Structures are given as structure tokens and as C-alpha cells.
Amino acid sequence: MFLMYFTEQPMSAYPEDEGRKFGATALMFSNKHFDPIAGSRLYNERLAEYMLAEEVGFDAIMLNEHHTAPYCMQPRMPVWSSILAATTQRVKIAQLGNPLPTSDNPIQIAEEIAMIDMISKGRLISGIVRGAGTEQLANNVNPAYNRERFEEAHDLLIKIFTEPGPFRWEGNHYQFRVVNPWAVPMQKPHPRIWVPGVVSMETVIWAAQHRYPYIALNTTIEATKKIWEVYDKAALEVGYEAGTEQRGYLIRCHVSDTEEKALANGRQFMWMQGEFTGLGHPVWGGPSGYSSPAGRRQRLMAPKRAANPYEKQLDEMTIIAGTPKQVIQKLKVIMEETRPGIFALWGNDGNVNHEDSKTCIRLMGQEVLPALRDIAKGLGLKDPFELDTPVSLKETPKSQLRVPA
Amino acid sequence: MPGTEKVVEIAGLKVPVWSGGSGPTLLVLHGDTGQNGWIPLYERLSKRFTVVAPTHPGYAGADIPEWARHPRDIAALQQWLVRDLKLNRPAVLGLGFGGWIAAEMATLAPQAFGKMVLVGAMGVKPDKGDILDQFLVHGVDYVRAGFHDVAKFSALFGAQPDLDQLEAWEIGREMTTRIAWKPYMFSHALPPLLRGCDVPTLLVWGDDDKIVPRSAGELYARLLRTARLEVVADCGHLVELEQPDKLAALVEAFL
Question: How high is the pLDDT of residue B64?
Fold first, then answer.
């Protein structure tokens, strides 16, 4: 069982009434409301929390990237990855993930990955994502070619990692006269690539076809099971049986010493979902051409996205909040039902303060992580490192692949 | 008499073409909100012209040219269609985004058109203001912004347009995304090329065009040596839907 700590790194220090007045806290919500003094404090609090997460026994710190969004203070994930590469000693750095299509230069991404992998002495997991809808607008990258760019940038990245340069790349969306970065990853054949996602079954299938672990981001138990059904089927079709080592799951989970406090802080997850100030905007979140045509009518019919109420999310366990004993019980249910080998605990969000965040991380380390490892042992939930799983289908020896029936 | 729709094939793509009427040929190129069928404007124009109104490849009902990346690619496809349909030096009426495509066609082959009418055309960067960015607003709100009088929008599409209509607009937005994402709705190459175009041109702008600033029309008027600009009162961007009779009268007088 591979256990990660995650926070969205909320920029919670903006005037909430301004967000309410504007009606959305994304893309066009003015950065005049960004207070860099508070920002500096928040960044440094996060650093202390990440250091603590390493100390208490997490296997990895999971990072992500969003743009023009108060809910995430991390517009450049490689910056945080670099900081952690230098300040931590043991913990792995899980980038989940690099938004490939939003970059016009995947070589730069390869250079960053290589540098971070070397500086961290081989502790990088270089996940990849398509990037959410708003990211396409924030980076002004054509959403209609998002998936094509994702796949092409991935192919280029893998070629960079596995073949010596210089070579030429004349692709559909990317062209380079010379590909020859003078920085290559320390891990061979390359750092592990994991693929996080929420809704797109095309991405689930794509991840399975490449034998990349898929990290389901806080989906309901039912939706998660559906994801694994699709993943497992796609895996069999390309010749391997998917196991727990391909299954990752991120859960919002806040721990405190009293149930009352945990539930109060847990409500802050709703901050992220816009209960307090409004968050997304259906047009910015799903620009035309970004999603598959098959779901077009459904998307047009869907009402403005609103988060399920807190109580409902507690009921269906997409948010867990409680004392260590209480959350262990619930996490056990998720582990039994969905069998992940990679588990990420999204501990703190919104306005949860630094002290409570540290308490949460400490209690996780003292009580929750050891319990989860025991449960995982009983359930046989193994991760890719324990099993030394090949990093991809391409890197899987042919002899290990079954000939599809 | 209502026009009829038939499907033709260009570049391996099935493309519906509306046509009807009699007289000299008038090629009509629709805007980015798509083809709205045999609209009253077409009906009136068909009394004096043979109206031929192809759907742009990629817009609702037509196959998507997966390789197309720029409105000029659509212009090349429409040029192909003009040749296949044996339209001999037609006049062209380009509506909004279709005006941009017509302008591209005119720069590629100025001899291909007898005369040209561009209505609220995209394609050039306005001196003042920006072209309204549809990708930041709901599809339905973008169409609504095309009207001076919202009541006319509601009369045509209903206050809350149905799902089929929303989907047709969305398909159009998806195609527009593919070919006009960046720079948004203008070409750096078009202005210098327009200077070489000598097609007699009428420019028509709604006086309340909230989508393409009138300064774009004034720029077109300066770039095309044989153009003049007419402004339609009480009218938004979608002149063809909001003031079809006024537009038809201008077209008839000019052609």
C-alpha cells in the first residue's frame, strides 16, 4: 500500500464576499484579490506541513497544478516539486500530474522532470493529465485538440526518456528540429507515470492500455468500481491482468482529536466546491471541443454544477472527517470495496488553519497510516513499488503479456 | 417557394447545401452560429437570385474536416464547392464568420466573385474594441448578444431554446474552436491581402453590433479599394435574422 498526502493548497485569504459578488471564483475572478503577504504565509505553512508529512511516514507528497483559481495556489507544479526535491529526504514526489496539452513545449516538461528526478535522487513520480477545462482557457491552448496534444506530448516525452537524442520531431501538434535535452531522468527506464482523472472513461482506457496506474480523484465508491471495471477490461484486451497496483484513489479525509472539530474542519472541503463563494463556471470548466461529442447533449442539459451537500458527501464517504478511529473504519470500507494499492489522503482544505492541519497530519501518521497498512496487508492491496511492476506496457516484457483471447 | 437541401461531397466530406430561386447566382455563407435553414432572407433573395447556401464543413449537419486549422481552410473547401457546383462567378454574401470566409476566398481568387457583400464580418482585428469572445460565454448567450432586440431572439428561438438548437450551436462552437481559437476571430495575413482584392464590395453592419465592433467594418472599408459601408439601424450582429428585409434591400440594390 502506497500512501500519499495531498492538499489542493487553497488560497483561502481572499475576501469571500467578493467571490460571492462576482459569482465565480475561477478564471475571471480578479487577481487583485490575491494577497501576496497572506500568500507567502500560506506557501510556507504548506512547506512545514509537507515536511511533517514526510516525518510521520507518508510514502509520497502528491502535487497538482491549477491556474487562475483560488482553490489551488500551485500554478507551476515543478516549482513545488523542486522545493520538495531539495528539502525532503525520503518521501516520493508525486506529480499528479503534468498538464501536457497546455504546454507548447513538452521538451521543457521533460527537462523539468529530469532535473527534479536527479535532485531528489530518483524520488519523482511524473504523472500526466489532460488539464481541466479552465486550464485550456488560462493557458490559451485550443481545447478541441486537448486529447490529441495529450497523446502526442506523451509519445514525445517517452521517446525523450527512452531514446538518445538528438532526434527530430515532426508531429501533428508539436514540431522540433532538435530534441536533445541535456538533462535526463535518473530512474530507468523513466520515472513512473500515473494518470489521475475524474470522469473521462477515454482517459481510463488510455491509462489501462499503457499500464499506467489510474488515480480516481474522489469519485463515489460506485463510480470508482465502474472505473475499475472499464480499466480491467481494457487491460485484458492489451494482454495483462490489472491489479491493485494499477488502482489509485484520492479521498478527502480530515482527522482531528475530536469528532466535533473534525466535522467542522471537514466542512471546509465545501469551500473548495464552492459552497461558500461559488466556484466554477460551466463554460470555462468545459470549453467547447474539450470533451467528447458523445456527452454533448448531456452536458447541455446538465444544470449548473453544484456540489452535493456536506452531509450527503459524508454519507456517501466522498468526504471523511472524524477521529483517527472513525476515519480508519470508513477508509477500510473504501479499501474493501474498491481495492486501491495507491491511496492519497487529501487532508486539509479551505480555511483549515496551520495548527489543525499539522494535527491532522500528525494523527494520520500516528494512527491512520499504520492501520491502513495493516488493512492493506489483510486485503492484499499491493502497490507498484512493492511489486516492482514495469512502468508501462511498453516496458513490460512480452513474455509477461498474455495473448488476448 | 421554399429552398431545398441536398448533400454534396467535397474533399470526401458530406456537406448539405440549401438552394432555391432563379436568376443570377448568389452564394451565401453562413456565420459561426451555423446554418439556420431556409430563413426569410433567403426566401426573399430567391425571388431575384438563385440562392446557394452551403453549410460550412464541420458545422451542424456537415462532416468535420479533421485537418482544418484555419478559416482559410474552409475558404478553400468552399472554393472547391463553387467549382464543383459550376457556379460561374457568383456574387457572394458572407454573414459574420461567413464574411471572413468570403473575404479569404476573395483574396485567394479575386476573379472568382462578381460582387461581394460582407455583413458584420470577422477576420480583421478591430481598431477599437475586441470581437466578443464566444468561448467565455454560454452558447445561447452568444447568439442572444447577436441581437439588438432580444425579443426577436426569443421570437425566433424561444426564450429558452430547445436541446436540438443548443446542440446545433454547440457543434458550431466546437468547429469554430478548431479553426479560430487563436488569434481570436482575426487573421494577421488578411488585411495586407485585402489590398490586392478588387471585388466590388458592400459592407453591412448593424448599428448595435455587440459581437464585431463597427471599427472592423471601417477597417474593411479602408483595405478594400472598392468597398463602402452601410449601417443598419436597430440591428445587432445577426443582420440576416434581425433585419432580413433591410439587408435584402441593400443586397438587391447593390447587386
Answer: 97
Q: Which CATH number fits domain B4-254: 3.30.310.180, 3.40.50.880, 3.30.70.1350, 3.40.50.1820?
A: 3.40.50.1820
DSSP annotation of B137: S
| Position B5, amino acid | E
- Length of chain A, in residues: 405
Contacts of B95 (CB under 8 A, 6+ apart): B28, B29, B30, B31, B119, B120, B238, B239, B240
Beta strands in A10-110 (DSSP E): 60-63, 92-99
With an 8 Å Cβ cutoff, the interface of chain B facing chain A consists of 135-139, 163, 166-167, 170-171, 173-174, 176-178, 181-182
Nearest to A168 by CA among A177, A156, A181, A157: A177
Element containing residue A184 per DSSP (H, E): none
Beta bridge partners of B21: B50
Along chain A (405 residues), what's the average pLDDT of each consecutive run of 10 residues?
Answer: 96 87 89 96 98 98 93 94 98 97 97 98 98 94 97 98 98 98 98 93 97 96 97 97 98 98 95 68 89 89 75 95 98 98 96 97 98 98 98 96 73
Give me the sheet containing B4-10, strands edge to edge: B4-10, B13-21, B50-54, B25-29, B91-95, B116-119, B201-206, B227-232
Instruction: Tell me the shortest Cα–Cα distance from A392 to chain B, in angstroms.
Output: 30
The number of beta carbons lying within 10 Å of the beta carbon of residue A294 is 9
Q: Which of A134, A300, A305 to mutate to test the interface with B (most CBs of B within 10 A)?
A: A300
pLDDT at B211 over 70: yes
Mean pLDDT of chain B: 97
Provide, for chain B, the percentages of residues in helix, strand and coil under a 3-state DSSP scheme, each rounded to the nearest 5.
Answer: 40, 20, 40
ipTM rounded to 2 decimals = 0.95
Confidence (pLDDT) at A305: 60
Q: Which residue has the cell 527537462?
A: A111
* Contact criterion met (CB < 8 Å) for A296 and B181: no
Q: Which residues of A touch B137 (CB under 8 A)?
A: 283
Mutate to test the interface with A, among B171, B174, B175, B184 (most CBs of A within 10 A): B174
Q: Cβ contact (<8 Å) for B167 and A28?
A: no
Contact between A91 and A130 under an 8 Å Cβ cutoff? The reply is no
Quote the strand ranges of A38-115, DSSP E.
Answer: 60-63, 92-99
Question: What is the residue-wise DSSP string for B63-127?
Answer: ---TT--SHHHHHHHHHHHHHHTT--S-EEEEETHHHHHHHHHHHH-GGG-S-EEEES--BS--S
Under 8 Å CB pairs connecting chains A and B tally to 47
Q: Is the pLDDT of residue B219 over 70?
A: yes
What is the full DSSP assignment across A225-279? HHHHHHHHHHHHHHT----GGGEEEEEEEEE-SSHHHHHHHHTTHHHHTTTTT--
User: What is the model's pLDDT at position B57?
Assistant: 98
Percent of chain B with pLDDT over 70: 100
Spatial CA neighbour of B238 closest among B208, B197, B199: B208
Q: Which domains does chain A have, with CATH numbers?
A: 2-400 (3.20.20.30)
